[in-house]
Write a structure and sequence with these properties.
Rossmann fold; Dehydroquinate synthase-like, alpha domain; globular; alpha/beta; two-stranded antiparallel ribbon
């Protein structure tokens, strides 16, 4: 059994969620469309899985290259990007060939940017292997790498031709990785679909089991939120006057600053968990949300074993990093906050005392 969600952008594609769906990779590669070469970009932990994906493609007489890249955020560097370009160039990749991103969110971010930048854009398929990758990075067409100055500052919008979320690969997923991914799922609950929060609150123990049917349901709901949001505002312009795709950055401005300060030793979802508590504090102190919604952030994130507090004494370093955030305009910091449950808005240029107060509440 599988679930298919369509991301209805200008170039619609499907996200397939279920057990054994990796078998559909051959169809997405597009035999008969002139494809001769496939590159599977993967982390070291996915080497065996990459070889299994390669076998049926070899049976179809395709030339398949396995490109192993560093694990996690260490893959998202200019040096690794150049390494991938070198392999594609040596192999003679053309515009009819295909890139496959196999792994967590960092791997699919990198693979998508390799595809976006090679020959100004070739087709690619995302095959995420973590909850975070399935719910967040693999869907939506955002691709990119990090720089010394911040996270995801260099990239491109480039949509995949399909996404395969095979739930079988979650078996044996480390508990910390599962928790990290659930932070992005919970984010979707706060900004758009409160039924996600209800499910987590009703059965937190089941949510910690990667093979639980509840986990499959939560992943599907999270992807559905992202698909709907992306369809209305692919390039994060908010052109219709609404918050648009920026809503998906809930907790990310502060969270990305935490990631950079910690040199990416914390998981993305752990940093975003702290970031969500920060913006909930900021919204409460700005008079936008009641204390019970602020408290709900801490309670639900804590129930998943996610951090809700951070180290004191480093506000200036974090504030400097946040000024490079993609939502910043000029010198004005802008944050995605809630004005009520599932009602995200942009809070632009909040008073420094409110920002410092929110930080102190998180760092207490």
């Amino acid at each position: 059994m599988s679930t298919r969600l369509t991301v209805p952008t200008a170039h619609p594609y499907q996200v397939v969620i279920g057990n054994g769906v990796h078998d559909e990779l051959r169809g997405l590669v597009g035999l008969g469309s002139g494809v001769m070469r496939v590159a599977i970009i993967h982390a070291p932990t996915m080497a065996d899985h990459a070889r299994r994906l390669r076998e049926p493609l070899l049976d179809d007489h395709l030339e398949v290259h396995l490109i192993e890249v560093p694990d996690s955020e260490q893959a998202k560097t200019a040096d690794v990007l150049t390494f991938c370009w070198k392999i594609l160039g040596e192999a003679g990749f053309t515009r009819s060939d295909v890139i496959v991103g196999l792994g967590g969110g960092a791997t699919t971010d990198l693979a998508g940017f390799v595809a976006a930048s090679w020959l100004r854009g070739v087709r690619f398929v995302n095959v995420p292997t973590t909850v975070l990758g399935m719910v967040d990075a693999a869907v939506g067409g955002k691709t990119g790498i990090n720089t010394a100055e911040g996270k995801n500052l260099v990239g491109a919008f480039h949509e995949p031709v399909g996404v395969l979320c095979d739930l079988d690969v979650l078996h044996g997923l480390p508990a910390r990785e599962l928790r990290s991914g659930m932070a992005e799922v919970i984010k979707c609950g706060f900004i758009a679909d409160p039924s996600i929060l209800d499910l987590v609150e009703a059965a937190p123990d089941s949510v910690r089991d990667p093979m639980s049917p509840i986990v499959a349901e939560l992943i599907t709901k999270g992807i559905a939120v992202k698909a709907r949001t992306v369809a209305g505002d692919l390039r994060e312009t908010g052109a219709d006057g609404s918050i648009g795709r920026e809503a998906l950055n809930y907790g990310h401005t502060f969270g990305h600053a935490v990631e950079r300060f910690e040199r990416y030793r914390v998981r993305h979802g752990e940093a975003i968990s702290i970031g969500m508590v920060f913006v909930a504090e900021l919204a409460h102190r700005s008079g936008l949300i009641e204390k019970d919604l602020l408290d709900r952030h801490r309670a639900i994130l804590s129930s998943m074993g996610l951090p809700v507090r951070y180290r004191p004494g480093i506000w200036e370093a974090l504030a400097t990093t946040m000024r490079l955030d993609k939502k910043t305009r000029g010198d004005q910091l802008r944050f995605v906050v809630l004005e009520s449950l599932a009602q995200p808005v942009i809070l632009a240029g909040p008073d420094e005392s409110l920002l410092l107060g929110a930080y102190q509440a998180v760092a207490s």
